[in-house]
Design brief:
Elements (H helix, E strand, L loop, with lengths): L1 H9 L4 E4 L3 E5 L1 E7 L3 E6 L2 E16 L4 E14 L10 H5 L2
Antiparallel strand pairs: 1-2, 2-6, 3-4, 4-5, 5-6
Length: 96
């Protein structure tokens, strides 16, 4: 039971969006790529794609795995391997 709880805590993730202008995400393992319109993150719960305009990363805290983004946030989408395959692969969907 303790082991299950520990595993759940390691996979915990929170996404807080304030007024569509500020986004705070916990459970971030790595920032795969970013620009003003798209940020691709490897998180505890899978690949997360944040889309918007004029986005910039305020802070990435490696110790707490937290990311702070500002800009016009349009969407947050998890890319699952099951049932979400696009023709041409993962990156073709990112750069259309």
């Amino acid at each position: 039971m303790l082991e299950e709880r520990k595993n759940f805590e390691q996979r915990a993730q929170n996404i807080i969006l304030k007024d569509r202008r500020r986004l705070m995400i916990s459970g971030v393992r790595h920032v795969e790529s970013f620009n003003e319109e798209c940020i691709v993150l490897d998180t505890e719960l899978g690949i997360l794609i944040v889309r918007g305009m004029g986005m910039h990363i305020n802070k990435l805290n490696v110790e707490t795995s937290e990311l702070d983004v500002e800009g016009d946030i349009g969407s947050c989408e998890y890319m699952d391997n099951v049932g979400n395959q696009r023709k041409g692969g993962f990156f073709s969907g990112l750069f259309r």
